[in-house]
Amino acid sequence: MLERILKDIQNPIRITISKNNLTKEFIKLIKKLNKINKKIEYFIDESDEFSRIECNDSKIIYQALPINLEEFASLIKIISNKETSLKRVKEIKMLSGNLIVFVSPFCPHCSKIIKKAVEFAIVNPKITVKIVDAIQFKELSKEFNIVSVPTLIINEKTKLSGEIHENDIIDALKEDKYYEYKIGYYAYMLKEGYADELKKDIKTKSDVKIIGDLLTHPMLKVRIGAMVLLEKIYEDDPELVEKAKVKIRELLKHGDSRVKEDSALILGKIGDESDIKLLKELLTNENKDVRDSAIEAIEEIEKRIKER
Questions:
Q1: Is residue 3 pLDDT above 60, yes or no?
Q2: Which of 21, 41, 119, 128 fits 98 for a cystine, CB–CB 3.0-4.6 Å?
Q3: What's the chain's average pLDDT?
């Protein structure tokens, strides 16, 4: 089967293997492919942080160990021959951005999204793709709050899980550039712990809305920073956080329990009497952490009302 897949690859493939806990096994697999077709070249670079699969102007970062060598060989063929089943190719060629695909070796659905992400990169080299084993690289998984695979992170701010369609990826990559710049800047400042410095730049309700949008950011530090910042803004100007509260109220019905939990907690800090009814709806939630957060939030709001 491997011979049949690899015999038709057209362009040379260069695989640079970095030094990590997957290196030895990865080398064994690549050697098998190299024996079948010498167009698949491999090199070991211990100074490099990431393994890379390169062909012409396409480059894929590959930080995972393929459990199915035939699927990996098919991926090599796609990269070499620039094969794609994507339908909106003209639009994709006008975009740019980065995709991170979190996978695991035993995931039956991961190969499908890996293939789709790689096709974006071969259609447009301005779209970079990184494939990461969520189990082996736990720190990175924790940073992006990965709780299931496959999960796709787009431009380090949009998270898609489960069945992911071409249109979903395109829509995320096409987001408004000014908004993208501001949300990226805010996320960076919060990740680095500069909430107080960023607070000086928050002057309008539109700015505050962006902080509300960051409550679903893939990175835990960013989400915590957004909560801290909203509380600081509320202390100085309660009316200014109203724009963020619209988003937060929506997030109380979010599919991710952690988002519901965070939204309830921050609403406890900045909410008012009108929010208690929404929080009470969470008291029957199946997730205990969500229920506990809702109880805590209700108690905080009621305490503020009494102290007026």
A1: yes
A2: 128
A3: 90
